[in-house]
Amino acid sequence: MNHGHVERLREKLSNLAISDYHGLRSPGLTCYLNSVLQVLFMTEEFREAIKRCHDEDSAPIDPLLRKLFDDLAKSRAKTDNIVKKLGITDAYKQRDAAEYFEKILRLSGTEASKIFKGELNHKTTCVKCKDRSDSRTLFWFLPLIVKDSRHQTYSVKNGLAVFFKQEKLCGNNKIYCKHCDKKQDADIDCEVTLEPNILTLLLKRFCFDSKRRCYVKLLCQVDVPKTLHLASCRYDLYALVHHSGNLTGGHYTAEIKSFENGEWYHFNDDIVERVKNPLFGAGNSSLKSSSAYLLMYRKVNTEKPDEADQETAF
Ligand SMILES: [Zn+2]
φ and ψ at 168, to 5 degrees? Predict the structure, then answer.
């Protein structure tokens, strides 16, 4: 092989590395933001919507995200401008990734943010006269209350079922019924009235411990399913934001499946590595994790129901 051939081969090989991804260089310790930014970059519909935005008609953060995504497509990118836009003055203070995920979506244009937006309807029914009132709310993520148990694995599937379980209001919690003109027992049912394209679940690991009278982080193991069902839609897992460590001194990273090559990558601030062992081993329909915090599922358009579709949907 002559010198020219070797050079061409080398060039070809370096071009192949385009399928790999780059890290983020940030001022201070903003891993909570880096993880979320990488998820947004790796969400095809979001990246495309940001690419389409025009400076003159775009929301406050769209041009900054477009610049960041352009940089990130080529090499390691800096987040300084986004950190500034989000009003982060102390870049060394640990913050909540879920809070910043929501902040970015609120500052993004409608085209981009609607990808993550869903709607719930809470139906309150008087048990006496069956009079019903509806209350609709939009959501970016569904918060699931994680049960603190050192010995049992928390099931995300069950957690979602609990979220949509009927609630009964009675005793001190009775509601005033206009029709009966008095306080009555009532049932509250929650239903999805708009399925988001990307369904995000928040595992509430940070919570108030009433016995110890302080905030704690729950370290329990969770069972994360590969596929979920919401209303009549099927969703496949494509990203996890992890939080390791404790309440005050932890670290966020993300594991994301590339829509470009189907491989999983681990994003840890400025380092990105391909995940060598498959997240879902042979035949496994779920994975166990004691650090999963945010889960992102993509809606899948399926014509014919598979065997998983026989399971309960909400
Ligand atoms: Zn009534």
Answer: -110, 125
DSSP one-letter code for 115 = G
Counting Cβ atoms within 10 Å, is residue 41 exposed (0-12), middle (13-18) or buried (19+)? buried
Please tell me the pTM assigned to this model: 0.87
Cα 184 to ligand 1 centre (Å): 6
Determine how β-strand 142-145 pairs with β-strand 198-204: parallel
Summarised one tens digit per residue, pLDDT across range 189-229 is 999 999 999 999 999 988 888 888 888 888 889 999 999 99
Kindly state which CATH superfamily the domain 17-310 is placed in: Cysteine proteinases (3.90.70.10)
Q: From CA 226, how far away is CA 211, in angstroms rounded?
A: 35
Query: Do the Cβ atoms of 132 and 184 come closer than 8 Å?
Result: no
- As a whole number of Å, the end-to-end CA separation of the chain is 62
pLDDT digits (tens, 9 = 90+) for 51-82: 988 766 667 899 999 999 999 999 999 999 99
**What is the 164 CA–ligand 1 centroid distance (Å)?**
23
Enumerate the domain spans of the chain.
Answer: 17-310
Secondary structure element (H or E) that encloses residue 271, with its range: strand 271-274
**314 Cα to the center of ligand 1, angstroms:** 27
